[in-house]
Amino acid sequence: MTENTILVTGATGALGRPLVELLVAEGAAVRAVSRAPHDAGLPAGVEVVEGDPSRPGTLARHLDGVTAVFLHSRVIGESADELLALAKEGGATRVVALSAINVDDPLDEQPSRYRGDRNKESESAAIASGLSWTSLRAGPFASNSVQAWAPQIRMGDTVRYVAASFRESPLDDRDLVEVAAHALLTDDLAGRKVELTGPQSLSHEEMVTVIGEAIGRPLRFQEVPPEVLEQGMVRNGMPETFVRGLLARYIRNVPEPVTEEVAKILGRPARTFAEWAADNAGHFAGQNDND
After folding, report:
1. What is the pLDDT of residue 3?
2. CB 160: neighbour CB atoms within 10 A?
3. Are the CB atoms for 107 and 87 separated by under 8 Å?
């Protein structure tokens, strides 16, 4: 097996796939974990192995020669400690854990936990592993706006949502991927809990306006009561516990911080939400019914 290899969990997901592609472009040897390796569709030269990170025993035979691990907090479940112990036995010396900027909040106030994220467990396991560790405390992703608003925008010009004035600092997923690659390939971020956000604080209403500018259509934000949105989201298949946690976060209305870490680490400005929206306008394009 290839020596000095980076093991990437969550390798075929929205973050893992571009991370694998970037690492390969940087000349790194990558071993990508997939539950369905024959359907992975990853770049040539990537070693795709079958395994389930939430059951580390399925990966034991693939850890020989691995020197660094990217620990995805959603796919690992409750098994981060066990996987990192096995990786260390196999010769790994470094772990980069995906976490979240709200990781120190009470667990029942972290909405993403209800969708499977185990940010606290992954970060704690990385720190306790005995490996050189970095925790990437990511802020809310810019791409969250696709799930939240794209279906409405594709149908018309009005976005019905809660908390028009709630502010957050949307992080471009690509910036997170580049920081993750930097942490895996260098020692620059070792021993750090790095808080990553976009460069601007924007309200929900301002974000919708930016999306409208990107697609060339003026959009209107119509605030609705939380219970109305809750009913709609649950009816559309979202877990009720997740929806309630998300709405509680909006109702508390504590502004998200803005950090400069992306710019400091990458040596260039973090991508703005406007840049992200322009590059992802296709998600929102659709019929304009002038409602």
Report:
1. 54
2. 15
3. no
> Do 198 and 164 meet the contact criterion of CB atoms below 8 Å apart?
no
Which residues contact residue 287 at a Cβ distance below 8 angstroms, ignoring those fewer than 6 apart? Answer: 154, 155, 156
d(CA 54, CA 80): 8
For 213-246, the pLDDT digits (tens) are: 999 999 999 999 999 989 988 888 888 888 888 8
Token couple for 4:
């000095």
Q: 8: buried, middle or exposed (CB in 10 Å: 19+, 13-18, 0-12)?
A: buried
* Positive/negative CA dihedral, 213, 150, 195, 16: negative
Q: Pairing relation of β-strands 202-203 and 132-138?
A: unpaired
Distance CA(233)–CA(239), nearest Å, equals 8
Q: What pTM, to 2 d.p., does this model score?
A: 0.93
CB atoms within 10 A of CB 231: 12
Q: Containing H/E element for 128?
A: helix 119-128
Residue 167 bridge partners (DSSP): 203
* Nearest CA among 157, 284, 167 for reference residue 220: 157
94, 69 Cβ separation under 8 angstroms: yes
Q: Is 93 helix (H, G, I), strand (E, B) or coil?
A: coil
Q: Find the radius of gyration of the CA atoms of the chain.
A: 20
Instruction: Please report, in angstroms and rounded to a whole number, the separation of the first and last CA atoms in the chain.
Output: 59
Domains and CATH numbers, the chain: 5-138 (3.40.50.720), 144-168+199-257+271-283 (3.90.25.10)
d(CA 167, CA 119): 22
